[in-house]
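Thanks for the sequence, V.! I ran Myosin motor domain-containing protein right away. Repeating your input here for the record:
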Amino acid sequence: MHLLRQRYGGNIFHTYAGPNMVVINPITTPSMYSEKVQGCRRKDAAPHIYAVAQSAYRNLLTTRQDQSVVLLGKSGGGKTSNCQHLVQYLVTVAGSSGKIYSAEKWQAVYTILEAFGNGSTATNSNASCFSHIVSLDFDQAGQVASASIQTMLLNKLRVARRPESESTFNVFYYLMAGADGSLKTELHFNHFAESSAFGIMPHVKAEDKQKAAQQFTKLQAAMKVLGISGDEQKAFWLILGAIYHLGAAGATKAGRKQFARHEWAQKAAYLLGCSLEELAPSLGPQPGLRPPRSLKVTAMECLEAMASGLYAELFTMLISLINRALKSSQHSLCSLLIVDTPGFQNPRQTKSDRGATFEELCHNYTQERLQTLFQDRTFVRELERYKEVYTHTHTHTKFYFSLPLGHTLLLKSERPHHFLLGHSHGTDWVEYDVRGWLNHAKQNPASQNAATLLQNSQKKNISGLFMGRSGGSTVLSGSIAGLEGGSQLALRRATGMRKTFTTGMAAVKKKSLCIQIKLQVDALLDTLRRSNVHFVHCLLPRVDALCGVGGAEAAGESCDPSLMQLDIGLLRSQLRCCRLLDAMRIYRQGFPDHMGFSEFRRRFDVLTPHLTKKLGRNYIVKDEKRAVEELLESLELEKSSYHMGLSRVSTRLE
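Predicted structure:
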């Protein structure tokens, strides 16, 4: 802990914990993320996020095996920023044929994702509300041949419902503040409603309006860079405007299910290119799409489902257009995947009295599964390798971890409709409020009607964009966006994800959203297990680091302001959560680097030219193990620094 404090105080935010990278969010963007650092070797430079990309890239070139980088940590830990740094480094260093994957293009991608997929939460003023995989496919020469993005676990209900004091997706505020006069008139934005059932209201402060308008200009420029035409952009603005007007229309709380304010509903219908009569049935039961008998939904819940369905369709189409801009027909050999997911979320950390939501449970569940993958790769797999490779358990490999059977503990809360979950081996207790969760167990038919409305729209730019999509009715395409891919490797990964869904199709046919969420995470984990995984642990320096709350409490006895910014208790909790100290211990006490006898001899026999001269270049080795032993003896290495197994030689870190 003292080391982390001193390094953070010296503006050194990266640290190695064995083979894993630890990054404490610097909050601002320091000058260390520059081209000067990109060309340095890992052993010659200080720890840096670029070194992770460099290591993964070199492993890909050496082994010709798929690599992946997984970012873990709490919400606000800087995972998305580090994901961008990784992509920018790989695109710059590896290059691409014809420079089709420029830094400008990737900056445009993340500008769009930030606008449509991020929102403000209690702990992070620009939090990601979806998970995504960036896939970079490399050719024989090591250049980027193709790229694609797959997204999943979009918190689409955020468009209509979210905790108090949190915002909806950024793009709504950008559009309301930045639309020009003609667009405002077309969207009926010259006059905003006094209230909204979805809580979507324009910024009040002039400073916030100005920033949002600038972001909208930046967003339009980014969409132009990716080849998204004016008509396609117009379709997105019309749908976003319709969602706003649906919130302004509201729904009746009792009696007949209908809109509370028909004039606003009429505006929504106009923007969607349908009549009010076609839109109104979305608030009630529909032929062939009736909800289960056990599911009693209100008009407001149907309206929320309709809005979230529209936004999900919009987001899926947006990812398809991004992949269209990244698509390439060049042959690719292997891939490097970068995985970014929303971090652990606990409302109690901000001293909020509310319970965590169902959506926060989904994101925490995803982080738990990724942490399980880290535990498996770091502890379980290493100990199993020692048992399989070595004839006996070496004294240095007797270090044993009593891994718990599960990562999550369950307790009953004293408050009604609440329960406690102890995430990360009980180091992070989250209290959940289960009111309304039963409606998440079954899919609301109103959300399924969104795709039909868009495909049958009288607005040519909307129907023309969505007419080719038949995915709205399928569970898979509605869950994971971007499966169309742009290369053979991308299509192969999509096939693997589809296989994950079809094996559990019996449960999916019940329209269980909970099962769909589990299968999405299963598909993500199955994809990662087929690659060599590199982990980056992103730590949050303090709770109010990204929520605009000033006056951080002093931590420790030092008067150095940069050291005082760290919340030592929070930092210690995060280290215990991911068991980084245990990971360092097994890395230093064990033999983490290993290689087969024949490969080891071929790679390092150049260091012993006298043996090569003695035996001759064409000498056929009959006993590879003995040849490696002679090579190591001639190098005069300490016997405690390596270990000879049945088929591999392992070395340890001195």
